Amino acid sequence: MTDQKVFRFLIYAVLTFTLIYLLNLTGFVFKPIGTLLAAIAVPVIGAGFLYYITNPFVNLLEKIKVPRLLAIIIVFLLIIVVIVISVYFIIPPIQDQINSLAESGPDIQQWIEEMINIWRNGQEFIPESVQNAIDNMVDNIGQYTEQMATSVFSFLGAFFSFLFSFILIPFFLFFMLKDREKFIPFITNFFSESKAESLTRLLKNINETLGSFIQGQALVSLSVGIMLLIGYLIVGLDYALIFAVFALFMNLIPYLGPWLSAIPAVVVGFFQDPMTGVWTAVVMIVAQQIESNLIEPNIMGKVLKIHPLTVVIIILAAGAIIGFVGLIFAVPAYAVIKTIVTHFYQAYKKTRPVGKKNIW
To answer: Cα separation of 71 and 79, whole Å?
Structure first.
């Protein structure tokens, strides 16, 4: 019986859950480690994201006989140019639109309340539970608005509190680009030759998975942001730049992000003019159809190979457990875990004795 995979699987499962339970009991021991990891998480994750975005440009410059160090310097100069352009030409109009939108907040709130009342008065029969939910929502719209504003300012406060960590990102990025080929040999140097070869393949697969996902998702998000900005400007939507930039960042959350970013744009569009709201919704639907049918399949379709329903379930579960951070990192984390499991499963199949029956 001990030779059967079912028995071994149950033993491994029990040991795994026992280990998790013990780690939970002794969590205070690992708290300093968690604090240390949290302190370096921002520069490492930020530099890692920029690494996968900029590394193709460095490789392209190397192909045309540009020394790698000079190629890295050129990429850093391009990043500085992008930052300067953003500071002088993009951030000021966004700030002006945010201030204008904040001033219009009470009017938008009142309009939402009126629309809900009009809809409610036009209904002959509304279940009591629905009626109570609507009344509660209408009575607390002001409170929800204040909570949203508080959340935004809390986010901004946290952002500026981590600003120092962002200063370290260029240093991490420089050494990631410069010494990228030294990382895997450094890790595999501690293992035997056979295990080092297997670990090298695994790390290369993880690197390829992360690189393809981040580069693809960034390109998809940028494409959607540009399409929405053009569409919003054509239909005359107020605060078009804000909603386009918001959609660009929300699109980093696969499948759910684009639709979540559409809600405030459509609401403001209807507040501005009913037809503007309709055309805003049309622009959003057209942009999403182009993305899901043309852009994303060609860029992301061959990378993840994950069913859309699986992605949505992963995002919802991670968001409920971790919060907003889980929404962003759930899919790439799942892709990495899937790569690791696939690697070890294939290694197991190669080492399984020939002719042994599979009891599954």
So the answer is: 12
Phi, psi torsion values for 122, nearest 5 degrees: -85, -5
pLDDT-derived band at 359 (thresholds 50, 70, 90) equals very low
With CA atoms as reference, report the closest residue to 337 among 197, 202, 181.
Answer: 202
DSSP 202-260: HHHHHHHHHHHHHHHHHHHHHHHHHHHHHHHHHHT-TTHHHHHHHHHHHTTSTTHHHHH
Instruction: Tell me the DSSP string of 38-54.
Output: HHHHHHHHHHHHHHHHH
Segments making up each domain of the chain, as ranges: 1-103+167-178, 191-351
Q: What is residue 168's DSSP assignment?
A: T
Tell me the three state secondary structure of residue 299.
helix
Q: Which letter does DSSP use for residue 292 in this model?
A: I
Count Cβ atoms below 10 Å from residue 261 Cβ, excluding itself. 23
How are the residues of the chain apportioned to helix, strand and coil, as percentages rounded to the nearest 5?
Answer: 85, 0, 15
Q: In a 10 Å sphere around its CB, with 0-12 CB exposed, 13-18 middle and 19+ buried, how is residue 330 labelled? A: buried
pTM of the complete model = 0.69
Give 279's contacts (C-beta < 8 A, 6+ positions apart): 235, 237, 269
Q: Fill in the amino acid letter for 158.
A: A
φ, ψ dihedrals at 354, nearest 5°: -65, 135
**Among the listed ranges 35-39, 275-279, 316-320, which one has the minimum average pLDDT value?**
35-39
Q: Confidence band (pLDDT; 50, 70, 90) for 27?
A: low
The answer to whether the beta carbons of residues 7 and 1 sit under 8 Å apart is yes
